[in-house]
Amino acid sequence: MEEKDDSVQEKRFGIEMQVINGVMGKKKMVKKSWDESKKMWEIAAPALLTAVAQFSIGFVTSAFVGHLGEVELAAVSIVQNVIEGFVYGVMLGMGSALETLCGQAVGAGQLNMLGIYMQRSWIITGITALFLAPFYVFASPILQLLHQDKGISKLAGRYSIWVIPQLFAYALNFPIQKFLQAQSRVWIMTIISIAALAIHVLLNWVLVTKLDHGLVGAAVAGNISWWLVVLGQIIYVVCGCFPEAWTGFSWSALKSISSFLKLSLASAVMLCLELWYFTAVILMVGWLHNPEIAVDAVSICMNLQLWTLMIALGFNAAISVRVSNELGAGNPKAAKFSVVVTLLTSTISGVVFTALVLVTKNDFPKVFTGKAAVIKEASKLGYFLAATIFLNSIQPVLHGVAVGAGWQFLVAFINVGCYYIIGLPIGAVLGYKFDLGVKGIWSGMLAGCLLQIIILIFVFLRANWKKEALKAEERIRTWGGSVEPRQSSFEENMN
After folding, report:
1. Given phi > 0 = left and psi -120 to 50 = alpha, else beta, which region is 369?
2. Residue 480: which residues within 8 A CB-CB, separation 6 or more?
3. pTM over 0.70
4. Environment class of residue 393 by beta-carbon count within 10 Å: exposed (0-12), middle (13-18) or buried (19+)?
5. 251: helix, coil or strand?
6. What pLDDT band is residue 486 in, cutting at 50, 70 and 90?
């Protein structure tokens, strides 16, 4: 009997220990998730506020111009979504090479390379801006060649020439942002961007509404606002706040330009294929009957969709920094765990915004226009907009993982297949062949986005994160850093 009692007690003790270990394990996981969430939000919160503030510069412009007339709104919208969308994608993509390099350098403790990387990127983006300037100058014939409405194209051509200064602001802005984000110095970007946005609203009210300068006033307001953003960030970088990362201009920035260009091009292609997808949708809508109403309705929805996308890009920036920092420091498990936490958080925010769009689908178009026909057409697209917003809460996080890990080439190929081989043809068939118009074209876009998300999740699940950490070490060595100071800690994480 005593032996049986001992056996029962041992079993009870074993069960109790399992329960205790389970509870302790759950508490440990909760604490780990909370700590990672705090790290993520320290970057994501200011990054998303910065993205929203900077995007809202164009958002505010559309809102003021929308009250000038349908043609004016269509002209500005097509410049923003086609010409600037094309250029913005190239410039942001070229600057995004720094997300991989700077982030992994910070993780490895090689802060001295950050200023050199940024200067190399400035050289590349500056030269790129010169090559892209003709797209602004010849916007009118380009749009007409793409079979856009002649009247809208002519007015858009004039407006695009007036906003050329913004192109060169982009060339400086994006490398600075990646430099700051890699070091988690994001709040200063937020403050500068919000201040510039407030000034932009005031400038539009004065130049467009009060002084009645129309599209010229809107262009001048945008130029001033973007250059205020750039100059504010430059002053912060060079004023001595980064004694290790910024030591002044250096001839070292001219070294390895060709190799740096390859990674920049890979980043640009990956992002451009993403942004141009939305541009292609706008163009396809412009080929429908009654293009003014259709383009205005889609542009309103796209503006709202891109605004919410800016919030998702905050999570994109956060996960890119977290993954690159952890891989650079030789912590593959931490990098993978960060992806899970950020993806869940971003998806929850996407659900919230999806619900808001569904609730306000009959009201949000009124912010941009007072035309009943445009409001009605935009309201009909509410369900498609809601679905797009939900998918865009997941997709940017996966892209951020790709940038942080250096998978730009792979994602570029995935984008080609999902968007241009699958998505756009489906949209064309549904929109034109089956006469579903805007809804058919948008359905094709959704199909491409969904397929891309599924493939990227599969890539993430199949990735060997230990190998990715080793690649990060090799990448740092290749780009001029030294990994000896952290070698021992790296080996410990591998074991």
Report:
1. beta
2. 113, 116, 252, 255, 256
3. yes
4. buried
5. helix
6. very low
